[in-house]
């Protein structure tokens, strides 16, 4: 049983988040509206009734503890396609949570304090439907009427929150230059030609120092680079700013969907040039081969937990265009077996194949050997697991971490046998230049 109270519909959900942020452990799953045409639902919540923070080296498997948290609050709810979240788990799953299932080397510097998993059990949320232009406060039956009244009152009042500006102290600095990047890619190329792997997703990291409120940074970024799987998560100790265009795993009425991205071209302000770049991506045999490798990997991952012969590829090599890049996107679907829960699906597929390479485990070993720093939140996932059984998660690319007045950002790309180092290096900048430049504009003159 859930309670719903209608709220005024706003084209941007920022004001609703600002009104609940001070309640603690606030989350904003952001569809990128009004600028992102594909987005539909925004989910905003705070003050979870229970939280879970774990690292992959915990003796108790993090995914098992996640399942236990879910089951402690499980109730009988029907899925509603117009109300995706009816109370449940929201949080992040960092890339290295994959160590729960696989033994990997420990070579890269583990610089971040961010736990590999931090989730909360949220029994109320604001759910905004931008297609139907509605907003509702949704509350579980375990939330008292007095609490619901107080939340509704808070959401309807004018916000008096003071705005603390954000500014970088210095330009972003990468953890390798182009020469260093080329040395690493030559090593990847050796592994590929030796038959160790077919593709490795190799990334670099940028960092800077900042002062002020990271929420103000996120608002600037979501305006400059709107995407349908964005998120802002504020634990009070750190903040995650995600502008991701990529869906990882969704379950709806037992149907599983994943939409891997592989293949990128920059946008151009000149319409003819932009169309040429888009067509070049559509026709590129190299990008098709990269994409198909990951589609096959994800088909294999889904087949572990989906019904026999249910895994299909309804869309292959679609082109999606964002503010700064064109992407090649495929869609893989399946029917989740009755033996498995959405959390089991997440466990068996984590981390996403589009950001590791193929075969997955060997690619992850090579990533750990060659990338100077651990990935932390980058290439992990953010999302929700509703008590009605629905799940939706992103791949945390185009994602920044704010921690101890330091801010980190990453970008990478799939390296295959015919990759050209200079082009791959440029592609990493194509993916995040608009984010880096947006924030570098805040450096005091």
Automatic annotation (TrEMBL):
Domain of life: Bacteria
A Pfam family that the UniProt record links to this protein: Chorismate_bind
UniProt EC number: 2.6.1.85
GO molecular function, one term: 4-amino-4-deoxychorismate synthase activity
Disordered: annotated span: 255-276
Keyword Methyltransferase (UniProt): no
Domain named Anthranilate synthase component I N-terminal: residues: 17-135
Compositional bias ranges of the Basic and acidic residues kind: 267-276
Transferase among keywords: yes
Protein name according to UniProt: aminodeoxychorismate synthase
Keywords from the UniProt entry: Aminotransferase, Transferase
């Amino acid at each position: 049983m859930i309670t719903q109270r209608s709220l005024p519909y706003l084209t941007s959900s920022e004001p609703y988040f600002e009104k609940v942020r001070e309640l603690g452990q606030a989350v904003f799953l952001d569809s990128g509206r009004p600028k992102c045409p594909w987005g539909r639902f925004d989910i905003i919540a705070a003050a979870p009734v229970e939280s879970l923070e774990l690292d992959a080296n915990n003796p108790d498997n993090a995914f098992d503890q996640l399942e236990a948290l879910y089951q402690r609050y499980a109730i009988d709810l029907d899925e509603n396609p117009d109300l995706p979240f009816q109370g449940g788990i929201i949080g992040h799953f960092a890339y290295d949570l994959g160590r729960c299932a696989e033994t990997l080397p420990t070579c890269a510097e583990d610089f971040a304090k961010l736990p590999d998993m931090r989730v909360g059990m949220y029994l109320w949320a604001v759910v905004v439907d931008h297609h139907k232009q509605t907003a509702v406060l949704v509350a579980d039956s375990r939330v008292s009427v007095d609490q619901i009244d107080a939340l509704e009152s808070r959401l309807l009042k004018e916000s008096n929150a003071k705005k603390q500006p954000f500014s970088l102290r210095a330009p972003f600095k990468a953890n390798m230059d182009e020469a260093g990047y080329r040395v690493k890619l030559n090593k990847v190329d050796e592994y590929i030609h030796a038959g160790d792997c077919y593709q490795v997703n190799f990334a670099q990291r940028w960092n800077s120092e900042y002062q002020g409120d990271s929420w103000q940074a996120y608002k600037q970024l979501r305006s400059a680079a709107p995407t349908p799987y964005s998120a802002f998560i504020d634990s009070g100790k750190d903040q995650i700013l995600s502008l991701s265009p990529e869906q990882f795993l969704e379950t709806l009425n037992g149907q599983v969907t994943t939409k891997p991205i592989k293949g990128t071209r920059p946008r151009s302000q000149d319409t003819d040039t932009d169309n040429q770049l888009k067509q070049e991506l559509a026709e590129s045999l190299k990008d098709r081969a990269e994409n198909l490798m990951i589609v096959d990997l994800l088909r294999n991952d889904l087949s572990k937990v989906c019904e026999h012969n249910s895994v299909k590829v309804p869309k292959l090599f679609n082109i999606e265009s964002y503010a700064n890049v064109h992407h090649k996107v495929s869609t893989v679907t399946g029917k989740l077996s009755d033996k498995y829960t959405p959390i089991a699906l997440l466990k068996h597929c984590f981390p996403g194949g589009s950001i590791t390479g193929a075969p997955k485990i060997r690619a992850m070993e090579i990533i750990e050997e060659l990338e100077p720093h651990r990935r932390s939140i980058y290439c992990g996932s953010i999302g929700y697991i509703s008590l009605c059984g629905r799940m939706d998660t992103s791949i945390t690319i185009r994602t920044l971490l704010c921690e101890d007045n330091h801010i980190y950002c990453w970008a990478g790309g799939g390296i295959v046998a015919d990759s050209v180092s200079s082009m791959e290096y440029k592609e990493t900048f194509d993916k995040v230049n608009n984010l880096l430049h947006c924030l570098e504009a805040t450096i005091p003159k």
